[in-house]
Write a structure and sequence with these properties.
alpha/beta, 6 strands, globular
Length: 168
């Protein structure tokens, strides 16, 4: 897949978004900010965002990605369809999440790993899941953005949590 200025080919046949500026480009945030309101795409043309976490046996842990997806959905609708999935252990699993995106008419799915650090799951497991999903959905373009990683907003969250403890 050619690099369209949004990341680097990752060797798995889909594009890896390399930083949040690239991610903002994919979401069209720069264009929307510069050009005013975005033109709403028809439901059959909407790209999808699939936020994927690890999955847990604890329901409360799985609810976090549900809440994150709901907030992202509010910010990105109607231009994007947003789903969530768990990589393993809990439902919906990755393939159910992809199927929901396809049923919604997505022709492109951006997979957002909801992981703090890079590890085996972000380097191997998720790319493998995407390759398998692409075989089952040959007309769908898949791209994957980077894990959450080091970002100033995450540093701010850590500092806020520390302040909360110190202020009590």
């Amino acid at each position: 897949m050619p690099d369209r200025g949004h990341g680097r080919p990752d060797g798995h046949g889909f594009l890896l978004v390399t930083d949040l500026r690239d991610q903002a480009d994919i979401l069209g945030a720069r264009e929307r900010a510069e050009e005013g309101p975005a033109v709403t795409r028809g439901p059959s043309a909407r790209p999808a965002i699939l936020i994927v976490d690890h999955g847990s046996r604890q329901a409360e842990a799985n609810e976090l990605v549900v809440a994150i997806a709901a907030r992202v959905r509010v910010l990105l609708q109607p231009e994007f369809h947003v789903e969530y999935a768990h990589m393993e252990i809990a439902d919906p699993d990755f393939f159910e999440g992809v199927a929901a995106c396809v049923r919604a008419g997505a022709r492109e799915i951006v997979v957002q790993p909801y992981f703090l650090g890079e590890g085996r799951h972000t380097r191997e497991t998720i790319p493998g899941l995407i390759e398998e999903a692409a075989r089952h959905h040959p007309g769908i373009a898949f791209r994957v953005s980077a894990h959450l990683g080091l970002h100033e907003k995450l540093v701010e969250v850590v500092l806020e949590r520390i302040r909360d403890v110190l202020d009590t």
